[in-house]
Amino acid sequence: MDYWMAFLIGGMICGIAQLVMDIGKFSQIHVMSGLVIAGVILGSIGAYDSLIDIAGAGALLPISGFGYLLIKGILSYKMENGWMSIGSGIFQLAGLELSFTIVLSFFIALICKPKG
Amino acid sequence: MKLKENYQQAVKVFQPKPPYVLNGIKAFFIGGLLCLAGEALQKGYVFLFDMSLLEAQHLMLLTFIFLAIVLTGIGTYDSFSQFAGAGATILITGFANALASAALEHRSEGWITGVANHMFKIGGAVIVYGIVVAYLFGTIHLIF
Fold first, then answer.
1. What stretches pass through the bilayer (chain A) (predicted)?
2. Residue A17 is nearest to which of B86, B98, B140, comparing CB atoms?
3. Which residues of A51-85 are buried (b: 16+ CB within 10 A; e: fewer)?
4. Residue ranges per domain, chain B?
5. Spatial distance between the Cα atoms of B95 and A66, rounded to a whole number of angstroms
6. Which of A70, A113, B58, B88 could form a disulfide with B84 if both were Cys (CB 3.0 to 4.6 A apart)?
7. What ipTM does the predicted assembly reach?
8. Does residue A54 belong to any structural domain of this protein?
9. By the CB < 8 Å criterion, does B82 face chain A?
10. pLDDT tens over chain A, length 116 residues
11. A15 → closest Cβ in B31, B33, B127
């Protein structure tokens, strides 16, 4: 059942994004920015939490899950640290993915040569 | 300005119409299958390494980022994402691919002005808008 929901929700986000890209003539990065903003907004009102409960990786793997992690870091850090949570809490959860991406991209550029 | 609008109008007739339904279905199935694989991976991590769900979720995301960047380095990711459309680019793998391919592409311009400067050329928009909006909403949450 979890697998079905992950497949359906993840597929639906991708399919809708593809339709928006085709019909609205948006580029990839426009749609990605929009999805991140949607993830942050849904995360801040708590709707994305329940979406992740339902769909698991299907909601976490699209880029809106990254926006959710950004706001989730702030909200979960807020209990102990008060006003300091805004700046430092952003990277509490999403920093894992962000720093790993940057470091690995650098090392791949170190090792590989561009193709084509 | 007028010329630009005229150009958009004039060129519209000659632009091929993309196959909306086919692209949408393709993106749905490939994105769905990738998410299914992620769910399976997450469950596998919990089962195999006795992790908490939070750890498993993050490790799953890191695995996908790792695969996307390594495939970008090898050079096979481009053909895959061209076939999959939004099914691959909208996921976090697309973000990782944007950073890695930009870094790779500008490798010849040097390590600082090339790789480090151009790494965020495409993917920077995601980071900027994500952080700005999260900052605003975090402030709102703190006040109310």
1. 6-24, 31-48, 54-71, 83-111
2. B86
3. bbeebbbbbbbbbbbbbbbbbbbbbebbeeeeeeb
4. 21-143
5. 10
6. B88
7. 0.91
8. yes
9. no
10. 788 999 999 999 999 999 998 888 888 889 999 999 999 999 999 899 999 999 888 899 999 999 999 999 998 887 777 788 888 888 889 999 999 999 999 999 988 887 75
11. B31
